Amino acid sequence: MGTFLTESVPVSLSGALGDVGKFKLYACDQPNVILYVTKQPVLSLDRQGKPGVAVTTYTAQQPDHSVKIIGGAATIGLNTSPQLDQASIDQAKALVASLGVGDPNRLRFLPLTTQKGKALLNLPPTAGKPDQKHNERDVGTPGGSLSFLAELSESGALEWSNAIRNQSRVNGDITIEYEYLRRVPDIGAEVRVHGQRVFEHLSAELATSYNGFFYGGSAKIQAAWDALSRNGGVEVVFLNQGLPPDLEKLRQEMVTTFAKQAMQILFDQIFAPMPQVAPAEAGHSGGLFGGANFALKWQKKTDAIEMIQKIEFRGTTWLKDTMDISLAALFSDLDASCLTEVPAQQAFDSVVLVDADPMLANAAASMSWDRGHSPEAPVFTKDGGNQRYTVISTDPRSVNVTCDIKINYSPPRWPVIPYKQVKTVGDGGNQMVIKTSAWVGRQTIFMFLREGNRIIPPQDLTPDDYLILNVSYAGPHLPTAVRDSAHIDAMTPIDFAYPLDPQGRLGVAKFSAFGVIGGQLKRAPEQVIPPTDSAVFILATRGGDIQLVTSEAVLGESDNLAQELIQGQGHPLISRAGSPSSETTKKGKGTGGNGKDGIITGHTAGIEYGVQGTYLWIRADDGSSRRLHLHSVQDALPFERESKLVKVELDPSGEYAESIFVDLVGA
């Protein structure tokens, strides 16, 4: 039996290790484990090794009987998580050996934990426009395949077809912004961007376009920004006392981290995409981000302004990074097999596109048209993909297209999710986009041990500092709620994913936790996870209680730690918000026996939905705790919401609960 709770491995305090080939390497707290992420996306390949680009041109007969391209459409498939090749692995081993951060002969390489991707296809207005449904802000979780659709104008279709046939240049680029998980000390800083000094440096480093803007490839902009953080144009001033003495050696790494996050936050205020430049002035591909061009919004020194950005980190946090690539670099090795020519008056392309998602197992679609094409039944794998059909009609805009799809996610406890869409071509029915990532809800659950308003650092944790996490999600589209359990500790956050209703009807996600903290079995009652929360928190105190923290939790005025964690939602704190006005806690007390004669009495502490089955935890009156195997999930339902005083008769093996009696008087 599988699970839909997965560990998120954060980057360690030491951060980036360096670059090997087309990849960037990061250190993590697990021994001999290296995290990696590509510096540039690459074209996805189908099973025959064909690149994931399909360009269709529409042609029409002219009055002089010649044939002319009058428009087109395109599909681009990207792979944002190519695997390490052997040459890169060998370079990585050599780098690790030189840095002394692990045993090169025992290394394991894991993809960097990422989320919240922002993917944009940037085209010159004269070339056409990207499909807005597929150019949305949040594309789900990067780390697999992404697809883009574009409607091409007459000049754009001509430019793209010529670029593929003749290896000529095409304008445009693809930008992907993502967040990655990193462990950082509790620290804040003020990043000051000295506008005029920044302008002087960038205007000297960047090229000048034909229309008077300073511009450059994103790799060159990143290098210039790094230089500004070294020469004081971008100044990082640590708040309070800065880093603790034992972490002082990380100061320069933290300076780089703060400067980079400030660039991500302020980038749109300083730069704008500039995909169309004169051929002789095009940026170079390669480097940290790729080769996309961006223009400096300040054209003269007096345009520059001073900017101050306050950033704070708390424990484990999501940081922003970017990868992008120019279309010229993507198309450089394509051939004419990617092109299709369709007579516009008689035929048009009808596309069904399914996005990939880590939770997707497969998707079975039924495509039908009221005329012009017979029904089709494509099946998509976990990698998603697209199918393109040519439909014949004298009036393409009025053709009705029906897409009836069944989404099968990989967690075995999730049901098959149906979705049906009926549209005319005039309303966009020729491009059916199935965004499986948008139908998966995701939250990150963090656990921290606290002392007052301080998070206990990793070096002070013990193997016994863990809890059992229970989660559930119920919705109108689900026959029964989906449930799962996992062990959670302060070193490794847990990602909680669940199937949303494609029709947009709201469901309810919940979580609870219990376990032994400071030698005592404690339980936190089940709480609802607000759908707007991207992160929720479990705060445990040795010898104290377990506190579940969400944006709707009632918190004490003095509980600054919980308030700031909720404010940050697992991200750096940009500003401070007001404090809630009150605090509520609940405590339980134990009673009962110790299991003699095959009978245990005590209070129920929690339910664990494990891979091997369902378990009931009992807190006995002698302070001990027992984990009892239940015969079915249904046996656990009466004990999910609150603790009850029970008497349990065990089976002969002493492992299973044969019968459970609830004491309604003494509960």
Compact summary:
The chain has 667 residues and is mainly beta. It is built from 7 helices and 42 strands. 13% of the residues lie in helices and 43% in strands.
Euclidean distance between termini CA atoms: 34 Å
Which regions contain 5 or more consecutive residues with pLDDT less than 50? Answer: 277-290, 575-592
Based on DSSP secondary structure assignment, what is the total number of beta strands?
Answer: 42
**Count the helices. How many?**
7
- Could you tell me the radius of gyration in angstroms? 28 Å
Query: Helicity range of the residues?
Result: 10-25%
By secondary-structure content and strand pairing, the structural class works out as mainly beta
Share of β-strand residues: 35-45%
Backbone shape: globular
Mean pLDDT: 83
Largest sheet, in brief, is: 6 strands, mixed
Structure description:
- The protein contains 7 helices and 42 strands.
- The strands form 10 sheets. Strands 1, 29, 30, 33, 36 and 37 form a 6-stranded mixed beta sheet that branches. Strands 5, 6, 7, 10, 11 and 21 form a 6-stranded mixed beta sheet that branches.
- Helix 3 (195-205) packs across helix 4 (218-231).
- It is globular, with a radius of gyration of 28 Å.
Describe the SSE topology.
Elements: E1 5-7, E2 11-20, E3 23-28, E4 33-38, E5 42-43, E6 53-61, E7 67-79, H1 86-99, E8 108-111, E9 114-122, E10 128-130, E11 145-152, H2 154-166, E12 173-183, E13 187-193, H3 195-205, E14 207-208, E15 214-217, H4 218-231, E16 234-238, H5 251-270, E17 271-273, E18 293-296, E19 307-313, E20 316-326, H6 327-330, E21 339-343, E22 347-354, E23 360-369, E24 379-381, E25 385-392, E26 400-409, E27 417-424, E28 431-434, E29 440-451, E30 454-455, E31 466-474, E32 482-489, E33 494-499, E34 508-517, E35 520-529, E36 535-540, E37 546-549, H7 560-568, E38 599-610, E39 613-619, E40 625-630, E41 645-650, E42 657-662
Helix pairs in contact: 3-4
